[in-house]
Specification:
The complex is a heterotrimer of chains A (263), B (172) and C (192). With 172 residues, chain B is α+β, with helices and mostly antiparallel strands. Chain B is 33% helix and 22% strand. In chain B, strands 2-1-5-4-3 form a 5-stranded antiparallel sheet, sandwiched between helices. Chain C has 192 residues and is of the alpha+beta class. Classes of the chains: A alpha+beta (263), B alpha+beta (172), C alpha+beta (192).
């Protein structure tokens, strides 16, 4: 890549002021070579107050793939999700508010899962090695989605299996609106155990999944709104369409990248 | 070599900062930036300027590992970048130490060694930085999975810091 | 112990053949989301969060017991020791795929501990470094409510609480379960 020294004369447009200016941060942020045992870790920071078991097992010692293929009871998910929904219900007014709340619960999960997906898509991350640092692998081998199709494929073939151990049932583009895509799930897990009262028949608790989808897209830089819609059929009473509406600037960039031949 | 590592959110908020020196070839892990007292602010400035370069290339290459994307000649600083799926930037500024025999103020660019502590652009150095970034990315994902880590907020876990320090010592 | 072995066999059998499965991480992440949301909603008043989690668990327990009895096809337990084995080797096995160790019985056989080697609910969790969470929050407190709710439906009034947690820096995660009394059939269940 061509690089050039930034001119000091040009004022920085970014917010350097966000950096802490306290000297304690600087001390904490500097590897302290005088410490005799760096592996104890606590010596490298002035703010450590967390306690750990004597086995020193922390989340950072746990292999990221350890629970990758682990299973739990579907009923356990259903019970927890039902509590999430009824808790949300007590704190909202109206269906729109309700769905917004469920969407907001899923959204941060989407942001978090995107990097987990990329980690696991990499040669090292997909193995069971304890570290991603084999010489040829590492997440450096994974690709970030740049275009809509790779992103949508990631949703149906990577995100869906991560969550539900199967791909989504189908992916469609709106015929009337080019910025709208639909992911179809005939049997969304969220809807299987929840019977919605009649006065709320429009409510889709799959808004939780829509939030996760929206989080993945936003995180990847494809800003959008994702919503869940009941589209029951005789065969699939819980059939749900996740409607993803991308923002205009995402579609403009898509056209530009297409012109430049970026895949 | 002296290093300044910073994780920067898509909203340009620094989430984690660390300065360290090389531990290779008998290095003591202490950073010795050329610009002394002002190094901290200078490094932040240089890295932030490099974010513009990241923005230029991030939609052209799907790679997460973008290698050296910028440099700043006055302090002989090189900036490598690793981009996560959520467009969080891992920025590493690496600056070779001034040659000890050179008098203060003189900038020597005649470093012949290809070793990691000496040469900021050799293939060995690039590979070492890539390994470092990979290891930090794994730590990053572990941080994300914690339900109490809020996206866009500084990483406060002391264990995370300890492990990044360890990755620096191991690879750089 | 014979009842322990039998319970283990039943638990394995049910888990393998009669439990519909789901990706464990979906459960873990969903639970983490619930706890984090409660912490936000209750402004990090961890005592309140513990209480809410216990309440949620109680609701779950009351529904879950039916599913448990139907799947495991077991009759009424003869004594509280048998109940403990069933909780660990059948209940926890089929709902969380773990079998906490039953131990530390009191002489009157009314109190025991469950020691958790593994706890899928807490798999990715590091508590907030705010100087309070490790002293005040019981991250997995929902499990206490589940036990309380489930056992109440089978005429046992119990108290369950965590006394240590690896998330707090303890070496074990331990839940203490106390039998308060057997509920007479004619009495309505406690309204919480």
């Amino acid at each position: 890549m061509p690089s050039y020294p930034p001119s000091l004369a040009s004022s920085p447009s970014r917010h350097l002021s966000q950096y802490s200016t306290s000297s304690s941060t600087l001390v904490g942020g500097t590897a302290n070579p005088t410490s005799t045992s760096m592996s104890t870790g606590a010596s490298t920071t002035t703010t450590a107050t967390l306690r750990y078991p004597s086995t020193r097992k922390t989340i950072y010692d746990r292999n990221l793939n350890r629970s990758r293929n682990a299973e739990l009871s579907r009923a356990s998910f259903a019970y927890l999700f039902m509590e999430m929904v009824s808790y949300a219900h007590r704190r909202v007014q109206g269906i729109q508010d309700f769905e917004k709340r469920l969407n907001e619960q899923g959204y941060p999960l989407g942001l978090k899962m995107l990097d987990l997906i990329l980690y696991r898509s990499s040669p090292a991350g997909s193995s069971s090695s304890t570290s991603s640092t084999s010489s040829s692998g590492g997440a450096a081998g994974s690709n970030r989605p740049l275009r809509l199709l790779p992103l949508l494929t990631l949703l149906t073939t990577k995100l869906y299996p991560l969550l539900f151990s199967r791909p989504a049932d189908s992916l469609e583009q709106s015929t009337t609106n080019p910025g709208e895509y639909m992911i179809i799930d005939n049997t969304p897990l969220t809807n299987q155990y929840i019977s919605v009262p009649k006065e709320m028949s429009q409510l889709s608790v799959a808004a939780y999944i829509a939030g996760i989808i929206e989080g993945v897209c936003d995180g990847a830089g494809f800003e959008c709104k994702a919503s869940a819609h009941n589209t029951a059929t005789d065969v699939w009473p819980n059939r749900t369409v996740f409607l993803i509406k991308f923002e205009d600037h995402v579609l403009e960039r898509e056209k530009e990248l297409e012109r430049q031949g970026v895949k | 070599m002296s290093y300044y590592f910073v994780i920067i959110s898509p909203a340009d908020t620094p989430l984690f900062e660390l300065t360290f020196g090389t531990s290779k070839a008998g290095g003591d892990g202490v950073p010795r930036f050329r610009n002394g007292e002002t190094a901290r602010y200078m490094n932040q400035f240089i890295v932030h300027a490099a974010l513009d370069v990241v923005e230029e290339v991030q939609w052209l290459s799907p790679n997460m590992w973008l290698k050296v994307i910028d440099n700043y000649a006055p302090t002989n600083s090189h900036i490598s970048c690793f981009l996560t799926g959520t467009n969080v930037r891992f920025m590493l500024l690496h600056q070779p130490s001034a040659i000890t025999t050179a008098s203060a103020g003189s900038r020597s660019s005649t470093i012949s060694s290809t070793s990691i502590p000496q040469n900021p652009t050799s293939p060995q150095t690039e590979e070492a930085i890539r390994q470092f970034m990979n290891e930090v990315f794994e730590l990053w994902v572990k941080t994300l999975m914690n339900p109490f880590y809020t996206i866009g907020k500084p990483i406060k876990s002391p264990v995370f810091r300890q492990r990044v320090v360890g990755a620096g010592r191991k690879w750089l | 112990m014979a009842s322990g072995q039998k319970a283990a066999r039943v638990g394995e059998e049910v888990w393998k053949t009669r439990v519909e499965k789901v990706n464990a991480e979906l459960v873990t992440l969903t639970y983490g989301t619930i706890v984090a949301q409660l912490c936000t909603d209750y402004d990090y008043d961890y005592a309140q969060v513990n209480q809410q989690l216990d309440k949620m668990g109680y609701n779950i327990g009351m529904r879950l017991i039916e599913d448990f009895l139907a799947k495991s096809n077991i009759g009424r337990c003869g004594n509280f020791r048998d109940t403990a084995e069933m909780i660990s080797k059948v209940g926890f096995k089929i709902f969380l795929n773990v079998t906490p160790t039953v131990t530390n019985w009191t002489a009157d056989n009314k109190q025991f501990s469950l020691l958790f080697d593994e706890n899928p609910l807490a798999d990715f969790v590091e508590l907030p470094d705010d100087g309070r969470a490790q002293d005040e929050l019981w991250f997995s407190n929902i499990l206490c409510g589940v036990l309380r709710g489930a056992l109440e439906m089978v005429q046992m009034s119990i108290e369950a609480r965590f006394v240590s947690d690896v998330l707090r820096g303890n070496d074990v995660t331990e839940m203490r379960v106390t039998l308060l009394r057997y509920i007479e059939d004619e009495m309505p269940p406690d309204d919480d």
